[in-house]
Amino acid sequence: LQLITRISHSVETNDYEMSHTQPITEANNTITTDIDVATAEGIVTLLRKCDAEIFDGWEGHKGLFHKETMDKLSKLAILARDMLQNPSGYSIVLSGCGTSGRLAFITARSFNERLKNSGKEPIYDYLIAGGDKALFTSQEAPEDDPHIGIKMLRESCEGKKKVLYIGITCGLSAPFVAGQLDFCLQHLDKFTPVLLGFNPTYLARNLPIEKWNKTFLQVVKELEAAEHAGKGFILNPVVGPEPITGSSRMKSGSATKILLETIFTAAHSSAFNPEVPWDIETLFRSYQAVYNTVYSHTESVGKLVAIAGDSLQNGGSIYYIGYDTLGLMGMTDASECPPTYGATLDDVRGFIASGYNFLRNKEGDLSSNGKYFRISINDFEKDILPSLKDRDLVICLNTAKSLPSLAGLKESRCKRVMLTFTELPDEQLSKFDFVISLCLPIGDATLEPWQQLHREIATKWVLNAVTTGAHVLKGKVFQNIMVDLKVSNNKLFHRAVGIIEGLGKTSKEHARMFLLRSIYHTEHLTPDQLEAPIAQHIKVASSQNKIVPVALVAAILNSSIENASLLLDSKPVIRVAILQALHSQETDLS
Ligand code: F6P
Questions:
Q1: What residues does 302 pair with on adjacent strands?
Q2: Residue 43 in contact with residue 227, Cβ under 8 Å?
């Protein structure tokens, strides 16, 4: 009987698995299907509902409060605690691509600062695909290279006795992380590998990785075996699809930040304040309370989204000015706009305190790479402030009791907004056109030292709403799909094919052809172009604009690439161009 039950269970599981082949992180969230026609405040209301799934779960999945996840977090906190108490030769390495790598950096930086400030040895390290440049500009090609990942991990762990490695890839998909996990699995005497992401393991990516012999799914299977043997961990709570399809910087990014900080807050508390009890659920609840506070200001955040939308629609820019770690949230938020929305590097920028001195990133001052790498508030005052226009928007992110002066801001014609976490005197507030004042719950007194982490995630939620909402209002999104994404790595290539396939109502193969024709600007692909590896298509596509919208419009109309480009030139708002294409297709059919 047991055998029959087991067999029928496995048949059910396989049936389920067969019918669900799309990763949850790449699926459409039905809550936001109409986000593209929502008002600014309506957009924030939809984001609020989507973000609730981080805590409440999605379609039967339990979200962060999943018991198995909480148990694994407790075990990881104990492992990290032991390393913190006896740090010599030990290292905790956090690694990822894009926003996942930025969150790795932010977390490593934050917990190292705590150690240094109390005279202890810093033991955290971060790795990000593309190196430190990727901390504030998207560098997506290196995400596809497992060998670069392995090389970076080897270098960072040289001479270490034991390493707790956490590879973050929200979609369970990044080859950069796959290589590192595989390397750890081959050296389990030294490494404890942890995979952090937001899909069930059977939905890990099972596509070939160029110049490598495994898929991500194969690595996950090996890690599952290691986990059963007590030598690794897979942290993969389901938090539901993203509000903008595939935009893992949003919910998955927030959940990543909460999970990492929860592990290390618990580890630090138990290592250095053993008399203070901690438990994972209480820590999660403290983030949930922050979520509730942020979204109780939906109306104000909606106003800010409307202001930001006006700026972008009128050709203006959005600038975040952060005087402390809140600036890291601004820079991270800004860095995702070009790959997600086809934005220019000038559309949204983040500036932070004393720049690299404050950042303390491994590669130091990168400002010689050009204007987009000038990131201090001083740089903002010199490069940007004198030429601000009324269509530009400056958002100051503040935790201090008294706001540092920003020479010339008051006199500037731009719009000035402040997001603050403290009460400020009226005379300071009067410098701003609009102020959002968030008073976060203090909660349990033991959580007090971690308040800045709460301010950070609150800032993340507000700024994600600002840039998502502003780009939606600018017409960069159709339904809840980012139709103007950059085709700058393998995952994004496949995502683009999926978008053309779905909205263009065509086969995968045809969708791929439309995409290639748009990339190579041709109606007839040559044999070389047809046979080139995806990496080659990405190389050609990366520097170009509107590749996906052109391919999509051509697919909808079954037209030439040239005609689709002309239509998009005449209708610069992408959503409007797509609507027109769909409308003329319907008219043709009738
Ligand atoms: O490839 C671009 C990107 O989608 C970024 O937008 C994102 O932050 C990054 O990949 C990381 O994705 P993942 O965490 O799933 O590896």
A1: none
A2: no
Alpha helices in 62-161 (DSSP H): 67-85, 98-117, 146-157
Atom of ligand 1 nearest to the CA of 168: 14
Start-to-end CA span in the chain (Å)? 58
Please give the structure tokens belonging to residue 125: 């390290």
Q: Are 469 and 40 in contact (CB under 8 A)?
A: yes
Rounded to the nearest 5 degrees, what angle is found at the Cα of 102, between the Cα atoms of 287 and 358?
95
Mutate to test the pocket of ligand 1, among 95, 97, 205, 499 (most ligand atoms within 8 A of CB): 97
477: phi then psi, degrees, rounded to nearest 5: -125, 135
Residue 169 CA to ligand 1 center (angstroms) comes to 7
Q: How far is the CA of 246 from the centre of ligand 1 (A)?
A: 9
The full 3-state SS of 287-317, as one line of letters, equals HHHHHHHHHCCHHHHHHHHHHHHHHHHCCCC
Nearest CA to ligand 1 atom 10: 98
Q: pLDDT of 488-530, one tens digit each?
A: 999 999 999 999 999 999 999 999 999 999 999 999 999 999 9
In whole angstroms, give the CA distance from residue 406 to residue 398. Answer: 12
Helices 298-313 and 280-295 sit at what angle, rounded to 10 degrees? Answer: 60
Pocket test for ligand 1, best of 94, 95, 99, 139 (most atoms within 8 A of CB): 99
pTM attached to this predicted model:
0.94
Q: Which atom of ligand 1 is nearest to the CA of 249?
A: 8
Specify the DSSP class assigned to residue 86: S
Q: What is the 3-state secondary structure (H, E, C) of 431-457?
A: CCCEEEECCCCCCCHHHHHHHHHHHHH
Q: Which stretches of 248-296 are DSSP H helices?
A: 251-272, 280-295
Q: Which of 255, 301, 581 is nearest to 469 (CA)?
A: 301
Tokens, residue 366: 């990168």
Q: What is the position in ligand 1's atom list of the atom closest to the CA of 247?
A: 6
Q: What three-state secondary structure class fits 196?
A: strand
Helix (H, G, I), strand (E, B) or coil at 480: coil
Atom of ligand 1 nearest to the CA of 336: 6
Ligand 1: which atom is nearest the Cα of residue 492?
Answer: 1
Q: Is 71 exposed, middle or buried (0-12, 13-18, 19+ CB in 10 A)?
A: exposed
Which of these, 330, 307, 318, lies nearest to 41 by C-alpha position? Answer: 307
Q: What's the gap in Å between 307 CA and the centre of ligand 1?
A: 28
pLDDT score, position 590: 58
Q: In whole angstroms, what is the distance from residue 45 CA to residue 50 CA? A: 9
Residue 410's pLDDT is 81
Distance 218 CA to ligand 1 centre (A): 20
Cα dist. 579→370, 433, 585 in Å? 38, 35, 10
Specify the pLDDT at position 7: 34
- At 174-193, the pLDDT tens digits run 999 999 999 999 999 999 99
Tokens 């956090």 found at: 94
426 or 6, which is more confident: 426
The alpha carbon of 100 and the centre of ligand 1 are apart by a number of angstroms equal to 7
Give residues (CB < 6 A) around ligand 1: 96-100, 140, 143, 168-171, 173-174, 248-249, 336, 339, 489, 491-492
For residue 336, how far is its CA from the centre of ligand 1 (angstroms)? 9
